[in-house]
Amino acid sequence: MVANIRIRNMATIAGNLAHADYQSDPPAALVALDASVELMNRNRVRSVKLANFLIGMYETGLERDELLTGLLVPPPPLNSKGTYSKFATGSSENRPCAGVAALVQRSNGICQAARVVVGAVSPVPVVVTGADLVNGTAMTSESIEEVASKAQVAVNPIDDSRGTVAYKRHLVKVLVRRALTACVNEEEIR
Q: Can you list the domains of the chain with their CATH numbers?
């Protein structure tokens, strides 16, 4: 589901991240997983959270003399389930119009932590701060809808050939709802 067949067979994840194309699948999923990038020059190696590395559209925190040499993805928390959901416009490039990554940690039916990241609509992936409102609760369709509404407001979509700002906001709400629902067994949602 990530990119198209040509990209999957030729590109590297480091190249994808260093390019910082806002309409790319991996950044949102990797930010949701709290990934970091390793940057190196002849004098040092440094690690930067991916969420801080991606500064803007085609703009990163990579310094002039550095190379992106590694991707560090911590193991997800125990009892967690994640998903990435996207909507592509059907072009030959299969680039997303909107993409949502969700990671939910649950224990005994109670949400311990939820992280939702929206990609491909704004210059950088957007971490939805309202996702934490489901922490400490049994996730319900109402609380999922509330997080989806917060995500819809949190993004600052770019109006482009894949959709208008209003259309992308609507997609974000739908995809957040789907992603969070996929992280919880549907029969458990009230």
A: 5-72 (3.30.465.10), 80-188 (3.30.390.50)
